[in-house]
Design the sequence.
């Protein structure tokens, strides 16, 4: 009788311990770094959103979207030739890299160069963004929401990031306009987009 009571007591004590050490399916497939970045992030210059990113959980991992002007050029310090409308580009891959989350945006054409970004969360609803392979200075992102307005970008206006100068060796990255159907309202995969990023 005493042995049975002892076994029951041990089972009751062990149950909470097992519950604490067993990871949920969500936490197992969605790293903490990505969970901290879940939501909508913006790059603002002169009060205008130039770029934005959305990271959301999906079946088996994460999905990402890059919102940007249909055409622009940048050396990392200045955004020029900025033209709308805004387009939404779905990420072809999202993966965790330690404290960073890497988002890849592929161009399906042979020989095209994918755009790769790495993001990490910072205190105070901030995030840091690196445009991999360009030599651009890291970009400071602010948390936004789905109602955040992207643009507008008046014709001929340039946007300079305060306190940022082009890095040595940084090339000008130029994006051409995608098809008219690739708008924020109708996110589609890029089909006519090839960044001219020399050296990447």
Sequence:
């Amino acid at each position: 009788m005493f042995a049975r009571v002892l076994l029951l007591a041990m089972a009751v004590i062990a149950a909470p311990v097992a519950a604490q050490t067993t990871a949920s399916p969500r936490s197992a497939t969605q790293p903490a770094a990505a969970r901290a970045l879940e939501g909508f992030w913006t790059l603002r210059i002169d009060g205008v959103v130039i770029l934005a990113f959305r990271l959301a959980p999906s079946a088996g991992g994460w999905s990402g979207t890059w919102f940007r002007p249909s055409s622009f050029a940048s050396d990392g310090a200045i955004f020029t030739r900025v033209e709308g409308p805004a387009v939404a580009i779905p990420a072809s891959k999202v993966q965790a890299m330690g404290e960073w989350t890497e988002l890849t945006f592929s161009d399906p054409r042979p020989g095209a160069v994918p755009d790769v970004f790495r993001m990490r969360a910072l205190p105070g609803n901030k995030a840091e963004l690196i445009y991999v392979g360009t030599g651009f200075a890291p970009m400071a992102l602010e948390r936004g929401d789905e109602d955040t307005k992207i643009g507008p970008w008046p014709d001929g206006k340039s946007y300079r990031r305060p306190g940022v100068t082009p890095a040595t060796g940084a090339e000008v990255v130029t994006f051409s306009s995608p098809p008219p159907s690739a708008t924020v309202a109708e996110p589609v995969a890029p089909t006519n987009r090839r960044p001219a990023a020399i050296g990447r």
